[in-house]
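Handout, section B. The chain below has 305 residues.
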Amino acid sequence: MWKIVGKFIMMTLISLIIIGAVIMFAASLFLAKQLSFATRNTLEQERRWAKRNGIWGNLEEYTVSEYTVEGKDGYILHCELVKNDETDKYVIISHGYTSNRYGAAKYVPIYIDLGYNCIIYDLRGHGENEESICTIGNYESQDLLKLIDDTYERYGQDIYLGLHGESMGSSTSLSVLAEKPDVKFVVADCGFADLYELIGTGFKAKHVGFLEPLVNFDMEIFYGWSMKDTHAIKNMEGTEVPICFIHGKDDTFITPDNSERMQQAAGGYTELHLVNNAGHAMSRASLGQAGYEEIVRNFLDKIKE
């Protein structure tokens, strides 16, 4: 009888282990897919959100032209130039995860006031672009490099070009510095230092930190990319490009220490502005256009001295 009971217990344990393994695999595969294919907002959703929050500005009043650029491996990026007449200064503004070029529109009036033409665009797998794997900063930085090259070819080799990014767009703008592009500055708002670390912290907060290695394994096997390859802090090490870091003090998603550590890794002139009462990607809303513009203006004036 005890043999029968023991055999039953053993079979039950084996069954539970198999079921647990299947559940873990299914959960990790689900998370890998969720991260690799962003649930993206439409242009209209971003427009409505920005208007509700009073940060849309007056984009409709500017001269805007749409065009496309080939990114990494020929992937097509949808772009818009917001024209500022009689200036040879340009800034490429990169939006955050799940957003699109209209999520970057809140920064346009700031740069128009500062005398810049603004290029806003849909990052890989976002906006009007075709569905694609999003690597949350790695392939996207290679797309951005193509966009930088196109900007010089399209608007002239003598232009003055800078970058501005928010969240994923911030880390994308910092990661591209590894390729030594000809850019004069970066304004990096609430970017993350290392994606694997960021996702791991989020998983641990949900008590599923043990899943991260398996999620990353699934990404490599099924989607061809690894979170360990997305790390702005390594890609920007030693750069001499001036960087203005902006981060909300109350950001609990990408905590301010990400910008603090990246500032320490940079080799050139840097500034760090921690914004009171600002959560993730909310510094522009918290400061208002005038307050945010003052930070950027002072930074740009300083690096020209």
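Note. The chain has one domain: 37-194+230-304. Compare this with the example in section A.
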